[in-house]
Amino acid sequence: MPQITVSGVPGLPEVRPGDDIALLVAQAAPGLRDGDILVVTSKIVSKAEGRVRQDSSRTAAIEEETERVVARRGDTVIAQTRHGFVMAAAGVDASNTSPGTVLLLPEDPDASAGRRSGRGLRERLGVRVGVIVSDTFGRPWRHGLTDVAIGAAGVRPARGPARRHRRLRATRSTPPSRRWSTRSRRRATWRRASCPAFRWPSSAGWATW
Q1: pTM for this one?
Q2: Residue 150 phi, psi dihedral angles, 5° rounding
Q3: Left if phi > 0, otherwise alpha if psi is -120 to 50, otherwise beta: which for 11?
Q4: How many CB atoms lie within 10 A of CB 40?
Q5: What would the DSSP string read from start to end of the chain?
Q6: How far, in Å, CA of 93 to CA of 104, rounded?
Q7: How far apart are CA 134 and CA 108, in angstroms?
Q8: How far apart are CA 52 and CA 103, in angstroms?
Q9: At a CB cut-off of 8 Å and minimum separation 6, what does 69 contact?
Q10: Tens digit of each residue's pLDDT, the chain (209 residues)
Q11: Which pLDDT value is given to residue 162?
């Protein structure tokens, strides 16, 4: 019976500009085998590639990475990046980085996965592995966050129409605030006030649409 085993890679150091991710992974996970798939967060890729900016220039960094503004509420911006991703703050992130700095997305996530990580592991360990570069996304009208593959090499991404060639459609075509009844809005207001994990507005994309 086919099985999927997910294992973390322990022992990785704090990644800094100029670090060789393939070398770090090869040292921490020498047991990688042909056919394995390595998932690398975009944060460490961005750090290694020097995609770091000072926090004081965060607004300029967002404008630099923005191809199109999708929505805006106050200081919160949902934007389409030059890669084509629709993300909060165009993917500019201050989490998991040194205080006073922000990280931009990798310049070319597919190249980061292929030339820099996949090929490097093949040269050092003699194995052919798939590499996925992931980033955390919020989703419209959804609680929580999810990781999305923004770059890949050595794997075949799924792309195409839904089953029976029918287009996928959104289950909700207008913002909830325009469709909720007064009673529903009161209930939602109570939920926002009573649940500390619920923020409005939020830097997560789903809460600002």
Answers
A1: 0.72
A2: -105, -10
A3: left
A4: 23
A5: ---------TT-----TT--HHHHHHHH-TT--TT-EEEEEHHHHHHHTT-EEEGGGHHHHHHHHEEEEEEEETTEEEEEETTS-EEEGGG-B-TTS-TTEEEPPPS-HHHIIIIIIIHHHHHHH----EEEEEEEEE-TT-SSEEEEEEEEESS----SPPGGGPPP--S--S-GGGT--HHHHHHHHHHHHH-TT--SS-SSGGGG-
A6: 7
A7: 13
A8: 5
A9: 77, 78, 79, 80
A10: 788 889 999 889 999 999 999 999 999 999 999 999 999 999 999 999 999 998 888 888 899 899 999 988 888 889 999 899 998 899 998 888 888 899 999 999 999 998 789 999 999 999 999 999 999 887 767 778 888 999 999 998 876 555 666 665 655 444 444 443 434 433 333 333 333 333 333 333 333 22
A11: 56
Take residue 178 and report the two structure tokens written for it.
């325009």
Tokens of 6: 């997910």
Distance of alpha carbon 187 from alpha carbon 164, whole angstroms: 39
Q: How far is CA 69 from CA 77, 122, 172, in A?
A: 7, 40, 21
CA distances from 142 to 69, 108, 206 (A): 21, 28, 6
